[in-house]
Sequence to fold (475 residues):
Amino acid sequence: MSKNQNKTGSYSFFNCIEKNFDKAARFISIEKGLLEQIKACNSVYRMHFPVKIGKEVKVIEAYRVQHSHHKLPCKGGIRYSMKVNQDEIMTLAALMTYKCAIVDVPFGGAKGGIKIDPQTISSENIEKITRRYTSELIKKNFIGPGIDVPAPDYGTGEKEMSWIFDTFLSLRSGDVDALACVTGKPISQGGVRGRKEATGLGVFYGIRELCHVKEEMYSVGLDVGLVGKKIIIQGLGNVGYHAASFFHESGAIIIALAEREGAIYNKKGLNVSKVFLHLKNNGSILNFPEAKNIENTEKALELECDILIPAALENVIHKNNANRIKAKIIGEAANGPITPEADEILDKKGVIIVPDIYLNAGGVTVSYFEWLKNLSHVRYGRMEKKFRENVNAEFLKVIETICKKKISIEEKKMILRGPREIDLVRSGLEDTMINGFHKIRDIKKSLKIENMRTAAFVLSINKIIDSYEKLGIFP
Ligand code: GLU
Fold:
């Protein structure tokens, strides 16, 4: 057993990312020490603070890790889970650095976590913990629009981001940019339209782009296009839920959905909105009338399908189940769902793995849009919507005159409309995901790299090196 392996023989999560990094480093000729600096976590803040819950005082363990300061602010979500530990948060912070570089989001990577089970704690107590955590971050200068900007992650959402903003503002009153201290806020609190579904939509755009490349599809024996592809989604949190909806709407067939309590399967396809209604009414996806239950949820990953989307937590595909995975494409909607050992097994089988550091970057991309909106203090589209509509109307009039033809009211509505915030956010995200995909693919082809993950790391590391060089830190 190597020094990096734990008792069960598997690598720590951080070592997994280091392994992926080292594979990419073989394609980069730069001094080793400089690569070590990019790999290292710059700052790790581990804290304990007391919170009175009922009559008892509970000591809460929490973290904020800033992996890289090559661009500021640092950026990354905050997760609430009993599995939170330093190794996990360090790894997720590192993934944020690589992710931001790939999609040209000018932030360093960070991540936070509080070791609590939000399912078993009342909303009032979660609020208390969140506010106390935020004030601990403020005390140590670990949060701020130009310092470090948290966002939602596993177990957190708009509510928590609102509490973070409110606590920040109350301790920094008069800071005109305070709204930009956190993203993923509700619209009424400075959030941006389209942030909630952004990660799931980014996953959809990324996979759709892959499915449009003939060469890639033929390499795994599939037809071009997303329509009719059989998809399995594991995890129906914010990311999995939205990804499932977008895939379903686009004509793909969702044959299985897996959650903690079990999975459901129908080879002809599940009606995703009906499943969500069933989940809402029953608190579980199991016993959905138009599907078969699969008691052991892990078995759902091993079903015959074209595309498998793990959208929950890390390390769900490991050396013990990788050989049984039958998917031809795996889209990593979650962070780190495949261990390095499993990665090698799947690579040998010829599976296309679309890596997390690219595929789930939609969330941080739209967080970037939210941050920009907060700093500019104006909603996207507010200045140009009416202007665009007026120009379009003039343009249409000219066309109607030249063609001597009247355009129908319905067509007019379509052509005349100026961009709303949601249109701009979604098109910005779509463009980002399409560009990111082709940049990775170009590197993969030009350097003859074996898989997309290594190519994505090469792209990302090169961009980080470039910004260190421009900063003057690297000679
Ligand atoms: N938690 C999300 C992620 O892992 C989003 C981070 C952000 O928006 O800053 O990418």
